[in-house]
Amino acid sequence: MTEHQQSSRRNFLRNACLSGIALTIGLRWPALGQTIGDVVIADEVLAAGQELMSWISITPTGQVTIFNHRSEMGQGTWQAIPQIIAEELEVDMDQVIVQSAPANPGKYGPQPQEGSFSIRGWYQQLLRVGATAREMLITAAANQWHVNPAECYAENGYVIHRNTGRRLGYGPLVKDASQLPPPGKVALKDRKDYKIIGQPLRRNDTPAKINGSAIFGLDKKLPGMLYAVVTRSPKLRGKVKSFDDAGPKSVKGVKYVVKVQRDVFGFLFEEVAVVADSSWAAMQGRKLLTVEWDDSGFEHLDSEQLYARMHADLYKLPPSAAFETAFRNTPAVLEAVYETPYQSHSCMEPLNCTADVRDNSITIWGPIQEANWIQANLSERLQIPIENVTVNMTFLGGGFGRKAFTDYPLEAALLSKAVKAPVQVLWTREDDMSMGPFRTGAVHRCRGGISAEKKIAAVQVITASQFISAGQEKDAVPEAATVNSGQIPGLLGDYYTSIPHYSFGGISTRSPIPTMWWRAPGANIDSFACESFIDELAHLAATDPLLFRKSHLTGSRCLALTNRLAAISNWETRRAHDGCGVAITECFGSMVGQVVKVSRQTGNKIKIDKIYAVIDCGWYVNPDIIRAQIEGSIVMALGATVMHATHFKDGKAVEQNFNNYPMPRIHEIPEISVHIMENNESPGGVGEPGLPAFAPALCNAIFDLTGKRIRRLPFSLEDL
């Protein structure tokens, strides 16, 4: 059961716990030098004037409530987090209610939904909370029966006495359990004993999303709420010179036309908002708004100019004498340049946010991916104490990094303050796709040499791209390249020990276009170049691409994944020019290998026949969620590889809707087979690592079939 609602957490704890009608425990913020907080009971921290971080509460009816401090944007935290706690607590998932926690790092700990961190960052704490509650309930039952707690065990919401079969439900035990001190140490289950973790249980947020009861940002309504749409400079950095509000104010329902700002990495973009009593009136009013923009003081670049600048930047880094010597001394050398495009995030739910700003408080609701940063930014910008800033997270219709940003909540808050009423800001699809920040385009210069033993003796990757920022106005100062230091996102860690000489460097290309992270940041562009180039080096060495990779792997974990990938894709039975490509990447604590199979169809079009994917994410919770995330990542990568890109003309984004930024349709999705490695390693991420390997695996497959190397994305499968 899912309830996506907000409540006063302190009041809930007081009412539910201090009255003695519930067992409520959680984590206290870790002391200095500790990585995990102490498990404590609610009345202990409340009496000390403190707050629990994450917690569970069990009522006399046996109902379990979990406050989820992570946003849910489709990645499955509303299922995985309760599933972890339910396992150690020994309750059925049907007994669990999930509620969303507002932003407050002092109470709940770090809350950013990025870096695929929800499980790998919190699983130990969640397991301990569940196990602690279970042991307290067992002790309460044992005390009632006057037996040793070791003679009792918990199962399906009951405490059972082994010798007599007596049982008590959790509900009647919570009053006594709430009076017990939490045990200092609890034993956690072995993975072999799990009943819930590791099972493909149905997601508890799915029914609400199907029947329409799930609350997304646009569903939020407040008494007296107004609606706003914003006109922004098509050249992004333009400043408002003047505007004529006569047209918008002629539309029935339009109340205000006001200047507003949005914050992009500290740079304030100027805008004009139309505020009305309905979203329709606001949109109609905006159509009649005339704004004169001052577009001076910054460049108005075309895509061709951007990429010409990146190509020039590739050669600005001072050379490394040690690498150049190693490179020249290899028997066979190769150089190649790769390009990746700018991309919009294009979440299915466009940006939106609702704000209610009072004299000394701010409350916002919306699809928020990074609650803590937004809370801090609003406090600083509006000069309101951070404890008076409440950020409520609704469900997100996709995030991909874009909804971690501060700009759209600031717009809503500034407008609410200006008109002295709650305001919901709506971004149209055109706003969402053309205003940025964007994933940066990039150009990579790759050089490598093969030894007499047919292994990589030296490899260098120099990247020119925009760094994540509001836009760079000055040339970057090149730094000297070094040998055998630094890393490049997406590259397998084993290569750093098996390649004798490597050199990775980058330079920030000057451009006023705002850029930011995009699903699997860094790895989503670097992996295309690195894994494509490794394939080219394998061809230079006249070695099977997968065996060539294996010859450089030093760790048993990566070798096991590679062997599994070869087995499920029947790699060893492939023939020359069979249309098979491979890529293996590593990011956010997980490794993913993919094999793509392609063929030539009638009309000479290339068809993607099947994709095999293997992920090693270590300890995991729900295999269905993992498969869904890998499949979704591959579909997203497919669109970015062969279908869409953001181009610029005279400083403006060209693509503004799905008519010229097409998304993959269901009939265009090939068969995807996902396999999960089983081991006892620490958990890694899942929501992002599935994306980077697809583009190079596809391009390597096309080379295997056609002999044509693809070094520039996106490309059309019909033009090969």
UniProtKB/TrEMBL annotation:
GO MF annotations in UniProt: oxidoreductase activity
InterPro entries: Ald_Oxase/Xan_DH_a/b, AldOxase/xan_DH_MoCoBD1, AldOxase/xan_DH_MoCoBD2, AldOxase/xan_DH_Mopterin-bd_sf, N-heterocyclic_Hydroxylase, OxRdtase_Mopterin-bd_su_IorB, TAT_signal
Domain Aldehyde oxidase/xanthine dehydrogenase a/b hammerhead: 211-297
Record's protein name: Xanthine dehydrogenase family protein molybdopterin-binding subunit
Superkingdom of the organism of origin: Bacteria
Species of provenance: Chitinophaga agri
Taxonomic placement: Bacteria, Pseudomonadati, Bacteroidota, Chitinophagia, Chitinophagales
